[in-house]
Specification:
The protein is mostly helical. It has one domain (35-257). The protein has nine helices and no strands. The longest helix has 39 residues, at 83-121. The model has no long low-confidence stretch (mean pLDDT 87).
């Protein structure tokens, strides 16, 4: 029993070291010649465009449900007119970026992990290395950069649809004009709310892409390793998103209110 604990910690430290080395390899390959721009655009299409429907529906329902749940409570305190402002601040600052990042982690990180894992099992990555190609630059760098670019865009789209969902929910019980609703929503927002929210989605995108690529690229041999890579990519990316959000909230509160 006493020997298993150091062995477990040893394994964790080795895995952390492997990730640091993999990250260093990623950053070095960004600036190498022969960057695959066509592959980057293809990955932006796969990661961004093919996630629009899922992210859009999630954002709309998020604003719709949040408005329906908060309206009765706000009405009990005589603050029903503040519902649009409350929903806008909640969605833009915290709920929108985190929920959309977790949704993308489930869809994108698992997809990347499974794709690269299957390429590793079928020895396609080894074939690229033998043929003189750079698999890190072609497979990893393009996917991570595509996540960094597309996750903030998807989050902004989901935030807009969440406000539309809140407007729809507000018109179920009380009729309110679109001009009044969105004026109240945007009046409560400022760049202090928007910039940190968008900034942390860049790091969420990096975490999703990097974890998915690392798990898939370093998966074990065997068909079952593909499923393991996809599952561990989702879990690890979700944990990183929550950790990064906690750090971002602390930094925002320090710089915004100091």
């Amino acid at each position: 029993m006493t020997r298993s604990v150091p062995a477990t910690w040893n394994k964790q430290f080795i895995a952390a070291g492997d990730q640091v080395v993999f990250m260093g390899t990623f950053f070095r390959n960004i600036f190498r010649r022969g960057f695959e721009w066509n592959e980057l655009l293809r990955q932006c299409y796969i990661i961004g465009y093919k996630s629009l429907s899922l992210v859009g529906i999630t954002g709309f329902i998020l604003g719709f449900v949040l408005t329906l749940q908060s309206a009765p409570t706000m009405k009990a305190f005589g603050a029903e007119s503040f519902v649009p402002s409350m929903v806008a601040i909640s969605i833009i600052r915290e709920i929108g970026p985190v929920i959309i990042a977790l949704i993308c982690a489930g869809k994108i990180a698992s997809s990347i992990g499974a794709e690269l894992g299957s390429m590793k099992v079928s020895e396609q990555i080894d074939a690229m290395e033998v043929s003189g190609a750079n698999p890190i630059q072609y497979l990893v760098v393009t996917r991570v950069l595509a996540c960094i670019v597309m996750i903030p865009i998807l989050t902004l789209m989901a935030d807009a649809l969440a406000l539309a969902g809140g407007f729809t929910a507000s018109n179920i019980s009380n009729k309110i004009s679109a001009v009044l609703y969105f004026n109240k929503s945007f009046a409560a927002l400022s760049f202090v709310d928007l910039i940190p929210a968008v900034g942390k989605t860049i790091f969420f995108g990096f975490a999703i892409g990097f974890v998915g690529c690392y798990k898939g690229y370093n998966s074990d041999r065997g068909t079952e390793s593909v499923g393991v890579a996809a599952n561990s990519a989702v879990v690890s990316a979700s944990l990183w998103i929550i950790l990064l959000d906690a750090i971002a909230v602390q930094l925002t509160s320090v710089f915004a209110y100091s």
